[in-house]
Amino acid sequence: PLPSIAQRLRNLNERQLDAVKMIDGPLLVLAGAGSGKTSVITTKIAYLIQTCGFKANSIVAVTFTNKAAREMKERVVGMLSKQESRGLSISTFHTLGLNILRKEYRKAGLKEGFTLFDAQDSLSLIKEILDKEFNGQTDSAAYCQSTVSNWKNDLTTPQEAITNADTEEFLLAAQVYAQYQRYLRAYNAVDFDDLILLPVSLLMADEALRDKWQKKVRYLLVDECQDTNASQYELIRLLAGFRRCFTLVGDDDQSIYAWRGARPENLERLSTDYPNLKLVKLEQNYRSTKTILKAANTLIANNPHIYDKALWSDLGEGDPIRVMVTRNEDAEAERVAAEIQSRHLRHEIPYRDFAILYRGNHQARLIEIKLQAYRIPYKMNGGTSFFSRAEIKDLMGYLRLLVNPDDDNAFLRIVNLPRREIGPATLEKVGNLAAQRNISLFEASSYRELEESVSGRPLKSLQDFHHWMSTLRQRLEGASPVPIIEQMIFDMDYYSWIQEQSSSTKMAERRIENVRFLLESIQRMMESAWEEDETAGLDQAISKLLLIDMLERQEEEEDEDKVQLLTLHASKGLEYPHVFLIGCEEELLPHRNSIENDDIEEERRLAYVGITRAKRTLCITLAAKRRQYGEEIDCLPSRFLDELPEEDLVWEGRGDEADSVKKERGKASLSALKAMLNS
Ligand code: ATP
Ligand code: MG
């Protein structure tokens, strides 16, 4: 049986209890890492449902990453019966936005089955625009993409961007922005940022709609609110509405997404926007040993603070923090792997209790190799996404075109794959016709007029393709999609194509396995519609799949004993008994770009997030030399090491260097160490 809500509440401290029971107005819980903020949210959801009689589908909870949303869901579902949790929405901001858009797409000028563009899709669209309409200035594509994204996150319209552009570069980006939005609509597509921007614009402009959603969402909870950007903040405001019943929790010291437009200032703005805002602070940390917590507190004290926090723990001193200096990056990876294996064997610590955290994904490569060499099972988070694999991108292209024939990008990706003798010259003719008639490429490929410019096999191929896809589309209506997709795969002999494209049988098998996994996931999504009132369609399954990292979903189902590898950014909100923080060097952490841009504070918060993931032991590693662009360079220990309490650090290095370091610890030793490593 599930523990009763009374029991759950007894587990909380007094302040947490206050935060749970405050349900009438706006509430902000502001507290440091591991103080039970997420626990407040999960318990509060159960409390709202079980004690206050809220319906699960009137509660919306939002957090920052898919992984965090999943963990939160698990915690909540563990407290509720199946019946009680039906229709509960715990998701990321983007999934919430997508769910709103799925219901209101017509109002946003979209048609059924609209496509979700990923970053790569939107980059190629921007390139296309620059190429066609701005004299081929495709070099500016990446710049335009990030600038447009920033504008969208700040709720700046193309018109405003054009008016305010004070440099030529800005003006170009602003003009591209305007075209980009037009093209997106023509493709019946939205990009990632639109998932928030469009719901916000709709809710702002349409009072009846706003009313409807504010009635539907009776209570709103947001975790990690320090990382909300302007458009996300606006979405919260619009949904909370006049009732203003919400709980936001966050920690300004863990704001690590400034590059995505995140605004810790939103925390301050809250008290202006909601004068009756209640503030609860939590100060007891239930996660880490005193030593780990002291290190985190000492480090973050170097940043200026909006609110002062005094975090304490009564979990005992625990082990000192180990700092391992190694010869080079290979030795670093080797040390970490050896260390994990020996502790696993000697102390029977399960692999899943270890996490290896790093600043950049590229650092994981060597670690992976060494873990494999030691036969240590591991799982990597946020690595190469399932969706960036060619076989998946291609099949998704087919699925996208199936549900949205206006999706020209998808059409271009797959029309000649497997080969159908439809080359660039033919496609150009199709493109011309589509432009003349203002129709999609797919539609144009069946037009009679095409016979004036295209003939022979290419023409026949195009017509066959169009006919085949149209038939599949028709069959899709009201039917279960997976058998139809299987038929499509069979018709085009997709598996043979994959074999042809693979360099080995093994690789081909793995790719086919991936395709099967995609089909299974679609099947599963069809079976579990997100909400009762929602009819599951292939188009919904597809856009949801695009949003959710499939690797994560795959792993969700296996509860395997594996070492966890993840970036510092991805580790937010999570906790592990034993943490390795690797690559603690200048230019890596703090990252070189941040040093150049004088943005050390954000990097310090990142280090703070890393340290506070650890429950029992923390081990920091750094290399004296590291290869970079094929050249071996000398590394300096990170300045953040200087900011940790020396008395709690135990330095371990190789041979004599380590000895001499041990002999004279203290501030001076660090500079000595630096000098030594440099010599
Ligand atoms: P972060 O800032 O890293 O997201 P958080 O403030 O959300 O941390 P939680 O993850 O909710 O903190 O809690 C940290 C740990 O402390 C969890 O393992 C949780 O189960 C435990 N915990 C929370 N509240 C209590 C409590 N009152 N008594 C005992 N343990 C608690
Ligand atoms: Mg949390």
UniProtKB/TrEMBL annotation:
Tell me the ranges covered by the UvrD-like helicase ATP-binding domain, including all copies. Answer: 10-289
Q: Where does ATP bind?
A: A31, G32, A33, G34, S35, G36, K37, T38, R287
Molecular function (GO) terms for this protein are: 3'-5' DNA helicase activity; ATP binding; ATP hydrolysis activity; single-stranded DNA binding
Keyword Nuclease attached: no
Q: Name one Pfam family in it.
A: UvrD-helicase
Location of the UvrD-like helicase C-terminal domain:
290-573
- Name any GO cellular component annotation: cytosol
Keyword terms, alphabetized: ATP-binding, DNA replication, DNA-binding, Helicase, Hydrolase, Isomerase, Nucleotide-binding
- Broad class of enzyme this protein falls into: isomerase
Task: Please give the biological process terms from Gene Ontology that the record holds.
Answer: DNA replication; recombinational repair
Q: What is its EC number?
A: 5.6.2.4
Read off the InterPro entries from this record: DExx_box_DNA_helicase_dom_sf (IPR013986), DNA_helicase_UvrD-like_C (IPR014017), DNA_helicase_UvrD/REP (IPR000212), Helicase_Rep (IPR005752), P-loop_NTPase (IPR027417), UvrD-like_ATP-bd (IPR014016)
Question: Per the record, what are the reactions this protein catalyses?
Answer: Couples ATP hydrolysis with the unwinding of duplex DNA by translocating in the 3'-5' direction; ATP + H2O = ADP + phosphate + H(+)
* Family named by the database record: Belongs to the helicase family. UvrD subfamily.
**Briefly, what is this protein's role?**
Rep helicase is a single-stranded DNA-dependent ATPase involved in DNA replication; it can initiate unwinding at a nick in the DNA. It binds to the single-stranded DNA and acts in a progressive fashion along the DNA in the 3' to 5' direction.
Q: How does it assemble?
A: Homodimer.
- Record HAMAP family: Helicase_Rep (MF_01920)
What protein name does the entry list? ATP-dependent DNA helicase Rep
Organism listed in the record: Marinomonas spartinae
Name the encoding gene, please.
rep
